[in-house]
Q: What sequence folds into this?
């Protein structure tokens, strides 16, 4: 069974509205639980409808993948100790960013891209979105995993800061953007440039977070959450999907505002968090 | 086409403004649950992952797509469940 594309887009609109209502609900104590459930309902609707898309040929394998992801997610969410919840959010956030990297990578490896390339089609807009999705997604992935490792106090990770770190951050940022531009300008080698860019951005994500002390980590996770929304939104431009654009940019924007609010509550500078210039070993002043 | 791109950009811009407007005064106890709940929503990339994995796209794209489905599903399902747990915790504390 498959649904008509117009009907799918219409149901996506319903899901988008439910996401807005759910997110709004999460901002008030009285409606927070319901808001979270409405968000989950919206996601459920979106997933079911997507499974009925005409391009989705075999559902069986997908159901297996979803079952694996659901089981792992539920077990982690229910087994984790209360005090370890922030790092679990960081871990989930990293997985979301990683998924955006993989989806954009899958687009470049797929048949549709190959066909457009062969036809000499100009599609620098889609390629720009692909590069943005991979770049932001990779920073989210590695940055979140470092935040997780730090909060979990894994032995192998320490507060690392060294002279010239900010310059190295800048160099890595410029290099990954530069290679991202090559993805757009040389579509014939897009796959090669894409994964090189993702590797550079992974390194950047690690360096941006590794020097930040554990007390500042909630703010960093809030910012990385905003990034994962932007990555999902960019993926929406790649796949021409309104729901990804709406839900992603909703989280991207609200996440940035939440980061600023948390910065104010904890006496931190938003700019310092944005550019990875936060002092290491800040004193604990957690408010929640 | 260009007009279609502009339509997508319009949707993007309006959703950004909506996201900014939704967040007003948040009580500090809700900072972490809000972050966690919106993080689960950002797992919407799952929809993209399903389209990438489910299509007739060749082996490499399918492998990448399936990995993306597993990662994004963990993000989504785990995210909503852990948010629910956080909120239940606050409720029982009152």
A:
């Amino acid at each position: 069974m498959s649904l008509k594309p117009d009907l799918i887009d219409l149901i996506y609109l319903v899901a988008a509205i439910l996401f807005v209502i759910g997110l709004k609900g999460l901002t008030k104590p009285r409606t927070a639980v319901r808001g979270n459930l409405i968000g989950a309902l919206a996601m459920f609707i979106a997933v079911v409808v997507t499974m009925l898309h005409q391009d989705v040929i075999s559902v069986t394998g997908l159901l297996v993948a979803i079952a694996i992801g659901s089981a792992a997610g539920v077990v982690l969410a229910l087994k984790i100790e209360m005090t370890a919840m922030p790092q679990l959010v960081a871990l989930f956030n990293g997985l979301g960013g990683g998924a955006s990297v993989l989806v954009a990578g899958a687009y470049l490896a797929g048949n549709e891209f190959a066909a457009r390339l062969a036809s000499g089609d100009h599609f620098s807009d889609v390629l720009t979105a692909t590069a943005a999705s991979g770049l932001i997604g990779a920073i989210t992935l590695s940055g979140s995993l470092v935040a997780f490792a730090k909060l979990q106090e894994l032995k192998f990770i320490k507060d690392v800061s060294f002279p010239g770190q900010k310059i190295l951050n800048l160099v890595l940022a410029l290099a990954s953007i530069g290679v991202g531009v090559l993805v757009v300008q040389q579509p014939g080698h897009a796959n090669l440039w894409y994964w090189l860019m993702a590797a550079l951005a992974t390194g950047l994500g690690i360096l941006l977070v590794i020097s930040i002390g554990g007390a500042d980590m909630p703010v960093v996770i809030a910012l990385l959450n905003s990034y994962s929304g932007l990555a999902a939104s960019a993926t929406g431009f790649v796949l021409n999907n309104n729901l990804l654009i709406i839900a992603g940019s909703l989280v991207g924007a609200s996440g940035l505002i939440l980061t600023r609010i948390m910065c104010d509550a904890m006496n931190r500078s938003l700019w310092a968090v944005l550019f990875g210039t936060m002092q290491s070993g800040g004193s604990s002043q957690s408010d929640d | 086409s260009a007009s279609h791109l502009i339509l997508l950009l319009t949707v993007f811009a309006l959703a950004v403004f909506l996201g900014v407007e939704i967040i007003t005064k948040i009580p500090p106890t809700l900072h972490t649950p809000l972050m966690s709940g919106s993080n689960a929503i950002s797992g919407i990339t799952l929809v993209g992952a399903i389209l990438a994995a489910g299509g007739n796209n060749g082996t490499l794209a399918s492998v990448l797509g399936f990995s993306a489905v597993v990662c994004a599903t963990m993000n989504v399902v785990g995210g909503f469940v852990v948010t629910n747990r956080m909120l239940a915790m606050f409720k029982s504390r009152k």
